[in-house]
Amino acid sequence: MLRKFFIWLSRLNWAQRLITKSKIASRMVLRFVAGESIDDAVEVIRILNQQGLLATVDFLGEDTHTSADADDATQEIIGALEAIQKTELRCNVSLKLSQLGLMLDEQICRTNLSMILNKAAALGNFVRIDMEDSSLTDVSLTILSWAVEQGFSNVGIVLQSYLYRTADDIQTMPIKGMTFRLCKGAYNEPATVAFPQKTDVDANFDKIVKLLFERSKALNFPCLSESGRYPSIPGIATHDEVRIQNAIQLMEEFQMPRDAMEFQMLYGIRRELQMELVEQKYQVRVYVPYGTHWYRYFMRRLAERPANIWFIVSNFFKK
Ligand SMILES: Cc1cc2nc3c(=O)[nH]c(=O)nc-3n(C[C@H](O)[C@H](O)[C@H](O)COP(=O)(O)OP(=O)(O)OC[C@H]3O[C@@H](n4cnc5c(N)ncnc54)[C@H](O)[C@@H]3O)c2cc1C
Fold first, then answer.
1. Are 161 and 208 in contact (CB under 8 A)?
2. 230 lines ligand 1 (CB under 6 A)
3. What is the pLDDT of residues 186-223, one digit of tens each?
């Protein structure tokens, strides 16, 4: 109920105006967001790397309304790739297709994406396309297939275990040249397309992890690149310890090397669990968002765990 409320709130312009202007909210958001600029993100990622964590950086933004904004986002992401290179971070990039103009014109989005992929390829880096709500699943997968057909091997996408279609989507994707991050899914979806019950979403997550490991096995378990940027390996994105234990057990059954998959978690969430996994020699990549367009991202984080509100408010009053 509360989850749906926060996701609904995330799409309201008046609520966005009210909350983003609030100084309290701007301070609260720093629990989940590295800061406003790429320099802020670089500083955060440098520390994560020193702790043995990998990163993927995300310039916040979605549902871009003008082609000028889509161009600006494209240039910012290209700048982020350059900053990663210059500072030698073990980090790749995540982005949203709606940020690159998908809702305006699919061709604008493809052009922007290929500029980013070209830059990333020249710098030996990798780009992960985040998955948005189910109205964009088909077009996102089509654009991924198009990018792979264009010869880009440095791109992957996210799949969501709450969607009924996901297991079928995997089976129909070519094994070579396709790499996935699996998450549960963060949007409000109707029961016509997504499992309404969390237990079903979890069971489907475990089932899909197995499908991803089978694909990896068919390719002789490709491993993480030396630079820590290039994963043609499955990304298991969850903070759910039961899901993580299931993936570890499957890895053992498949006799998979530890750098043939990576766990992925969000910046500011379950930091102790991230470090425990690193100590056990698993790869862990942290998703590090930055920028001023934090509102929707922040609301989705509250939706996942409404207790965050009380945590944040109580910490605020302690200061
Ligand atoms: C690296 C990464 C990338 C993602 N990319 C996408 C994407 O492209 N598209 C998409 O739809 N979704 C994406 N998500 C979000 C995802 O779909 C889930 O909404 C989110 O990860 C919460 O689900 P969970 O698997 O952690 O499990 P849950 O069952 O929701 O949570 C398990 C436990 O994790 C902790 N936890 C989870 N969320 C929070 C939170 N917000 N604050 C504090 N503690 C929390 C709690 O301890 C909770 O008990 C991504 C998640 C990660 C980690």
1. yes
2. no
3. 999 999 999 999 999 999 999 999 999 999 999 999 99
Give distance in angstroms: CA of 199 to centre of ligand 1.
15
Of 227, 48, 253, nearest in space to 126 by CA: 227
**What is the Cα–Cα distance from 108 to 70, expressed in whole angstroms?**
8
Instruction: Classify 50 as helix, strand or coil.
Output: helix
What does residue 256 show for φ and ψ, rounded to 5 degrees? -90, 135
Q: Are strands 127-129 and 155-160 parallel, antiparallel or unpaired?
A: parallel
For ligand 1, whether the C-beta of 246 sits within 6 Å is no
Residue 46: band (very low, low, confident or very high) from pLDDT cuts 50, 70, 90: very high
Written out in words, the top-level CATH class of the domain with range 33-293 is alpha beta
Q: Which tokens is 134 given?
A: 């189910």
Do residues 120 and 75 touch, judged by C-beta distance below 8 A? no
List the chain domain ranges.
33-293
- C-alpha dihedral (128, 131, 137, 141), degrees to nearest 10: 10
| Parallel, antiparallel or unpaired: strands 127-129 and 91-95 | parallel
Q: Whose CA is nearest to atom 32 of ligand 1?
A: 240
In 26-169, DSSP assigns E strands to 54-59, 91-95, 127-129, 155-160
How many beta carbons lie within 10 A of that of residue 176, not counting itself? Answer: 11
Q: Which of 130, 202, 243, 285 is catalytic?
A: 130
HEC string for 303-316: HHCCHHHHHHHHHH
SS3 for 289? strand
Residue whose structure tokens are 């409000």: 188
